[in-house]
Amino acid sequence: MENEKGASSSTFKMGNSAQERSLPYVPDCYAVPPSYEPRDALDSKSESVPTIDISRLKGSDDERRGVIQEIRLACQSFGFFQIVNHGIDQSILDDALAVAKGFFELPAKEKNKFMSNDVYAPVRYTTSLKDGLDKTQFWRIFLKHYAHPLHRWIHLWPQNPPEYRERIGKFCEEVRILSLEIMGAITESLGLGRDYLSSRMDENGMQVMAVNCYPPCPDPKTALGLPPHSDYSCITILLQNLTGLEIFDLTAHDGSGRWVHVPEVKGVLKVHIGDHVEVLSNGLYKSVIHKVTLNEEKTRISLASLHSLGMDDKMSVPCQLVNDENPVRYRESSFNDFLGFLVKNDISQGDRFIDTLRIKD
Ligand code: OGA
Ligand code: NI
Question: Which site among 17, 145, 289, 295 is 20 to 30 Å from 64 CA-CA?
């Protein structure tokens, strides 16, 4: 076999990536660009990340106030928190992870039915970020599909494994209810009230499910599963079977920041603040920069549920948060605007949607 070590990303057409073929080496086009190094050079160690018992959102007024305050602090400092006592049954989480793994274990022919590089497709199976198009490749395989309202999309989802629709559907429904509860707490923490976005998110809101698979990598130091990025969403709720997620703590080292490993504890869900909550808070809350590292032996599966306003519904800075000291810091934008950005830009090289929204002083 010809050695593809020095191959460019365009060598690996869809369905033919190094990670799908379990190549025993990492081709050069997967090498992490030097622009990531300053951040990677900083110490990266496991430590505590904010963990919030959200069952208290349904408790007494005092209990709810306490949780809202914890959420506020976590959103300001990390743009990230973990949630416990979220009310989703462990069996629903386990079943969703297992059936997602089952999908990636299917023969290529079955998965390739969903193969697409069209970021507007409501269901698409692909690798890396934008297959073969971006400068750098990532050791990831994924299926992305719309999930709300479920009846509108579920018939487009894979029918194999046979339990896929039912189990992922159940997970999506439960996570969406949770997302509404958390968004209510977030808007309340900003002084906007818990229903500020509830009808817009409930009726027309988008839920995009990213079902990610990171196969074992022969040289995990060389490649990444996903590059440093933030999500466009309001919030992303994430379930994983293994560690690999790292978040960037902007406040560490007097503002130069550092990477923090997110530990895996069974049943715990992760909440990422996305670009649209950064806009909603007029910059008080930061969308969290995160990346995925790889491991040599095990396959990592994650389910990332991205929640936002409707396709064309624009997120803008609320007038309640604007005054002489706090002018509007972001332009308004929609999920559709993000998709337009994705077509034209290369996240693998550090392009960020939120940077296009900032209004310069
Ligand atoms: C994503 C993402 C993290 C993970 O899909 O946007 O950041 O752990 N996923 O897979
Ligand atoms: Ni992400």
Answer: 289
74-131 per-position pLDDT tens digit: 999 999 999 999 999 999 999 999 999 999 999 989 999 999 888 899 999 987 665 5
For residue 82, how far is the Cα from the chain centroid? Answer: 14
Is residue 335 within 8 A of residue 232, CB to CB? The reply is yes
Please name the residue whose Cα sits nearest to atom 6 of ligand 1.
231
* Token pair in block for residue 141: 């395989």
Residues 6+ apart with CB under 8 A from 223: 26, 30, 31, 32, 137, 138, 139, 217, 294
Q: Is residue 128 in contact with ligand 1, taking CB distance under 6 Å?
A: no
Give nearest CA residue, ligand 1 atom 8: 245
